[in-house]
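Dear support,

I submitted the protein below through the web form. The confirmation email said the job was done, but the results page showed an empty box. After a refresh the structure appeared. I'm attaching both so you can tell me whether what I see now is the final result or a partial one.
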Amino acid sequence: MELQAGTIVTLTVKNEQEYGWFLMDEEENSVLLHKSEVREGFDPNEPVEVFLYQDHSGRLAATMDKPLVTLGEYAWTEVVGEEIKLGVFVDIGISKDALVSEDDLPYKYEVRPIEGDKLYCTLKLDKNGRLFAKPATEEKIWEIAKRANKTDLNKGFSGIVYRTGKAGSWIITDDQYRAFLHPTQREDEPRVGQTVTGRIIDVHDDGSVNVSLLGRRHERQLEDSEEVYDYLMTRGGQMPYSDKSLPEEIEKRFGLSKGAFKRALGKLMKEGKAYQEDGWTYAGSKPKSGE
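What the results page shows now:
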């Protein structure tokens, strides 16, 4: 059997060259261990364990570095770069990064992983024998997923998005729960590979969960009211917006739905920080008649 990229093998030294050592297996298939890939403990008189990969020229090569992943084995890898129309590169623990083909990435560029994001990957060979990194399938995620309990409801979580689609986004949490994020439970669509935080809003019988990236209602209302009040004060305590304003005007100015704007405004009015009159909103309490 020929030596194969993506595998860890134990070989013996065949001979030394100026730029490294040729290693061979029992069938005398050989591969180069370049001097730059030799690590502490190497003894040319002893068998050596190496990882096989393709160098930058596409030739099979060996390294004594231990990879994070091999063919059929999975691990979290960090995105370290991208190449338009090719895909993204991930660090697999050796001197050469592995390419995740754009065929294995989301169609929308906006949700593709960027540098620093994490992908749960394995290694694969294409039909030409070239080595690639490949994100885990849904079936693989189910294999590593743990069951959430009903007591996890409303708990906070942190996790990494591993898949996205029209229906929403799928996340594996730090506790290894498989989580689903519906578009109504987020403000912006997260990238695949992005770390997100939020809370668990439902626990299913199969142990998977639904999550939200939105703050609890009173927390969001506080943030929204602060934003509206800050804008009001930048205009000298008066603004041409009220609960009678059109939804599109509110969305354009504040980035809020009309319902959220009315709740924020209601909070300010209840606290005596604002009042409305003739379609305008003013800072402070409404003057009493005759004042």
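Response: this is the final, complete result; the empty box was a page-load delay. The chain has a mean pLDDT of 92.
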